[in-house]
Amino acid sequence: MVKRREKILEEMKAKIKKSYLSRDNLLVFADNASSDLEKQANILFERLTEWYGIYFPELKLDDRSKYCNLVLQIDKKKMQESKKAIQSLMGDKSSSIISQLEHTMGSEMQEKDIETIRMLAQQILTLEETMEQIEQYKESLAKEVCPNMSEVGGPKIAAKLIAHMGSLEKLAKLPASTIQVLGAEKALFKHLRRKTKPPKHGIIFQHTLIHSAPKDKRGRLARALASKLAIAAKVDAYGKGHFIGNELRTDFQKRANDILNAKD
Amino acid sequence: MVKRREKILEEMKAKIKKSYLSRDNLLVFADNASSDLEKQANILFERLTEWYGIYFPELKLDDRSKYCNLVLQIDKKKMQESKKAIQSLMGDKSSSIISQLEHTMGSEMQEKDIETIRMLAQQILTLEETMEQIEQYKESLAKEVCPNMSEVGGPKIAAKLIAHMGSLEKLAKLPASTIQVLGAEKALFKHLRRKTKPPKHGIIFQHTLIHSAPKDKRGRLARALASKLAIAAKVDAYGKGHFIGNELRTDFQKRANDILNAKD
Predict the structure, then answer these.
(1) In chain B, which residues have their Cβ closer than 8 Å to the Cβ of A41?
(2) 3-class DSSP assignment, residue B212
(3) A58-82 pLDDT, tens per residue?
(4) pTM of the prediction?
């Protein structure tokens, strides 16, 4: 009797360990972490530009890492070196930045003030590095966990869709029409409540073919992509290693060409 | 005529530069950045514990930096080294953690999975370092910008109060009763709308004497501290370097002793 109990316990333990192990789980965690990191880098970057604006308010750049590197290297007391740094970082944009620096309305700061701001810039650069590495990991994991979806929609979108549902299995159970608007729940519920137009795409809007398409074609493109992704998800979840990703991708590209070339 | 125009422009430029320079401004930026960093370290730490929970779910620690260091050093494939690392980090708590590790229900992971998690742990440690350095800067800046307030309520609370209002001057114009509840606006408006009890303290609750006091004394302690802080703020803003911080602090401590010793 005792032995049987122990055996059952052992079996349960093994089952729990196995359920932990499922690698789509890891994909969900990695995706959550990387979207948190992205949000945080945005927030800190905003703080940095406000703060650094006391010293050099004219500097406006959307490129986070270039801005941070300029913060690290510009020093009004060492104009020659600052100019060199700007030139090597900014190429042909450098002359306008240099003239802004020469006529800046920003005020001087003590060394410890500017050092603290540089620390924040350094922190943002470190965040970007971590983000980059997690992103690479995510893509390689997606190719392993859901090779078909990764082939059809790209590993980033595949990872985001799985993370949104929490597991590959849950995603595989959804119809294409739901996959099409995953991530656009807000717009969907607004549609249901107030009779606004329904959303045409959620996460899959991030696909290059869709967000670069003319606005009136996007809905049809999204539907075409979602239908292929739905098939791919089912194959990834239940296909036991079967791979039809390349066929699905070719099908989608043909359909996309038809949609883009259609006159209406 | 042209010369006069240029002269006026120069003067205005100088004025703008001066207004940028006011160092309480820097205190506001530093405080905003450090509260953002604190929030973000919390969020990322939560992500880390979820994620690492696949590998070692039994590990529970509130100490962020110790947890992160354990994540960096524990490796189930190298039990001897992991044990040593746990011992040197955790002292007398180490034996329970070691036995948890030996009987963990967590599952194995591939090297690249665990490496990615370690990257996140490393990121959190870097955030903590930056936070620590900005905190030190903030304190030294507070002692410079508002020496009286820093003496009475501590540099942290002084910095937070100024950051909350956006400038020392704005803070100096407030009556003590407002300073008492700064940072508790949510509770205050709830009180005004729904007749709940008014808040007794906002930011100044962080003062050791107040948050360690019995609940029924906190309101009076907060009022006493706020009244001294209100005076200190006015001296810091308009006192031209005058310092009465130590007297104010002695007064507050006497009053606090009276309140704590009063029987009611």
Answers:
(1) none
(2) coil
(3) 999 989 999 999 999 999 889 899 9
(4) 0.83
SS3 content of chain B, % helix, strand, coil (to 5): 80, 0, 20
CATH number of A147-264: 1.10.246.90
> What residues of chain B have any CB closer than 8 angstroms to a CB in chain A?
13, 16-18, 20-21, 23, 25-26, 29-30, 32-33, 36-37, 40, 43-44, 47-48, 50-51, 54, 57, 105-109, 112-113, 116, 119-120, 122-123, 126-127, 130, 133-134, 137, 140-141
Which residues does B4 contact at the CB level (< 8 Å), separation at least 6? Answer: none
| CA B50 and chain centroid, separation | 25
The answer to whether B17 contacts A106, with C-beta atoms less than 8 Å apart, is yes
Give the domain ranges of chain A: 44-132, 147-264
* CATH architecture of structural domain B44-132: Orthogonal Bundle (1.10)
Contact yes or no for A229/A168 (Cβ under 8 A): no
d(C-alpha A153, C-alpha A143), whole Å: 11
Q: Residue A29 is nearest to which of B18, B51, B134, comparing CB atoms?
A: B51
- Do the beta carbons of residue B212 and residue B256 sit within 8 Å? no
